């Protein structure tokens, strides 16, 4: 039973698909791991994680986009999330990513973010995208730069506090 | 279940529909206001939007959720009512919220009564509770008008709420409670309604 109208996208090693109920447990485990989740924010308790999961489904229904679940083509396990996030109060639509602990260090976030960005440009018609990164989140900064994004400014995020905004190359630059 | 498959319910004055993006401004105004103080508010615009998105997600995950209460004739929205059970809720809740300037006209009673009927008769619920802030006297009164009774032994969400238990389907069907609710709703629906005569005892 699909929870959203999300399309299914493919890349070399990954499938990007809409959220499914079986994605909740690995997502809740990610949110519970403060070491990994602090840079993503959004949920401090299991109840918060559930609300975030529900909000992402609603996000798809309201905007027609949201976070995909990243699934490994070999094996089918959920490996993380990547997609476009744009709740009210956000500075601009954001290209975001997170990877579950056991899939770190394999370029999964990079491959997924590339695919999600291409989809946003080609299918949704976005002309630009940003990524919001908390100061000190060096791994996400490194990934943003690998994706060709450049630091633009620091601003006050409505929920995350002081936050850095990286701007991705537009569709023409890619 | 696609979002568009959320059932539509009708009562004398109201239509209950799934939450749509265009209903969001009224929801935001309510959660930015003091009215939302018993529901975790007031919230900032991000928190409010995220909660509204979760209202939609809840329907998809659970197969039930909160409807938007609309006027059958004018399509104006008055609030939300329905079922709610996010993670951390011990039992399925029947919940409601009325926009600040629409209170006092019996919309919550009429909508909640229909939502409960639907859950009992169409979705097979064998009961439900309402979690209420003990300072929220309007909601406690509504729970009592719906025939719910405080259940001091039931698990609460976080200890700051009290649990009102709704009558089970068998106790509600053709009962004095449901007759009383119907009478109250007709009184709101038709201000000219007057009972024919008065009981002598």
Description:
The complex is a heterodimer of chains A (about 170) and B (about 200). Chain A is an alpha+beta fold and about 170 residues long. Chain A is built from five helices and eight strands. Chain A has helices at about 25-30, 35, 45-65, 110-120, 140-145; strands at about 10, 15, 65-70, 80-85, 95-100, 130-135, 150-155, 160-165. Chain A has a five-stranded antiparallel β-sheet with strand order 1-2-3-4-5, sandwiched between helices. A three-stranded antiparallel β-sheet of chain A has the order 6-8-7, with helices on one face. The radius of gyration of chain A is 15 Å and the shape is globular. The mean pLDDT of chain A is about 95. In chain B, a hairpin with a 3-residue loop joins β1 (about 10) and β2 (about 15). Helix content of chain B is about 35%, strand content about 20%. Chain B starts with 8 loop residues before the first strand and ends in a 12-residue tail after the last helix. By secondary structure, chain B is an alpha+beta fold. The interface of A and B includes residues 4 and 54 of A.
